[in-house]
Amino acid sequence: MEITAQMVKELRESTGAGMMDCKKALGEANGDMEKAVDILREKGLGQAAKKADRLASEGLVSVEVCSKCKKATISEINSETDFVARNPQFQALAKDTTAHIQSSGIKTVEELNTSTLNGVKFEEYFKTQIATIGENLVVRRFETISADDKGVVNGYVHSNGRVGVLIGAACESAEVANKAAEFIRNLCMHAAAMKPSVISYKDLDKDFVEKEFIALRAELEKENEELKRLGKPLHHIPEYASRCQIGEAELAKATKAIEEELKAEGKPEKIWDKIIPGKIERFYADNTVLDQRLTLLGQFYVMDDKKTIEQVIEEKSKELGGKIEIVKYVRFELGEGLEKKVDDFAAEVAAQIG
Predict the structure, then answer these.
(1) How far apart are CA 296 and CA 248, in angstroms?
(2) Which of 31, 35, 65, 324 could pair with 1 as two cysteines, CB 3.0-4.6 Å apart?
(3) Mean pLDDT, the chain, integer
(4) 71 beta partners
(5) What span, in angstroms and rounded, lies between the C-alpha atoms of 343 and 45?
């Protein structure tokens, strides 16, 4: 019997098995669709396909950094349960897959599936792992960042395998880049804990900032109502939420207000130049709350909470003898954006006993 493309398409859609596997199964079954499904299941491929409708929202985030800190890859591979995520075989699968993505320069899931790992097509290798481990597994996403001779990349994955970060930096020289690797890893650890969304306030959309500013003021004003009732100090209500709202005109206005304040306090003008920089720094701290929450450079460093990441980078640049600029930031948190399946255990038991 002739095996048509439509037959292969139908079998693939109903089982989730690979195109060539479906074609071979239909050939062995002489075109019998049900028998072809049985053949796939007997080979373990049908078993993998049968699990494909179950949501995989657990798993591992894996990070692979090359020995010279010039290339780093992060991946998220999902399983259905945390139990499987702790399985050594699954952990090895995640590690091997991430290393394969990096060494082969793979950019997309489609490229990954058609690549070859240990002499086997990756799609088939992965389905074999699904059949062996016994749960639906999904390579959900991955990304690789690279650096030239004057750049450095590093990464960090939290011990529970649920959060991973990559950061890439451009440096003034190759020597500075070589010295900065451990510092960049420390920044990755910070980002894993503090969850910045972007590198800088320059990466924030202005419309988003305006909406968030309205929400921020409302939040602080609401909290102030309770603080006032309790007789506690009130929150400062900021004029701005991000540096992207503070241009030259806004800074000039703030400086003038500081000068008027100093004049009212009777401070001699000859010492204003020593006082104003500190007050301007305080002005920025009070009016960049959104940057402190969402941007890497605007956050206070977990290892020294008196300084922002931007300030720490400036200090490290001076220490190492050349400029360091963060140019790439990737953070994966396991299952973000996925809806975790909640089983109705009673309904499941009832279904099984009929």
Answers:
(1) 23
(2) 31
(3) 90
(4) 146
(5) 25
H helix runs in 115-267, sequence order: 122-133, 174-194, 206-230, 248-264
C-beta of residue 120 within 8 angstroms of C-beta of residue 20: no
- 61, 75 in Cβ contact below 8 A? yes
User: Tokens for 30?
Assistant: 């002489």
* Amino acid letter, 194: M
pLDDT range class, residue 47, cuts 50, 70, 90: low
pLDDT band for position 345 (cuts 50, 70, 90)? very low
Dump pLDDT digits (tens) for 164-176.
999 999 999 999 9
In degrees and rounded to multiples of 5, residue 50 shows phi and psi of -65, -30
Q: Report the C-alpha gap between 234 and 127 in whole angstroms.
A: 58
- pLDDT higher for 340 or 15? 15
Domains of the chain: 3-48 (1.10.8.10), 56-145 (3.30.479.20), 200-293 (no CATH)
Over range 234-243, report the average pLDDT: 94
CB atoms within 10 A of CB 283: 21
* Beta-bridge partner residues of 79: 58
Quote the tokens at residue 243.
């540096």
DSSP bridge pairs for 144: 73
Q: Which residues of 65-76 are buried (b: 16+ CB within 10 A; e: fewer)?
A: beeebbbbbbbb
Q: What is the mean pLDDT of residues 265-273?
A: 95
Q: What is the pTM of this model?
A: 0.77
Q: Measuring CA to CA, which residue among 47, 44, 49, 5 is closest to residue 26? A: 5
Res 348 pLDDT > 70: no
Mutual orientation of helices 19-28 and 5-15 as an angle, nearest 10°? Answer: 110
- Residue 83: in which H helix or E strand, if any? helix 82-85
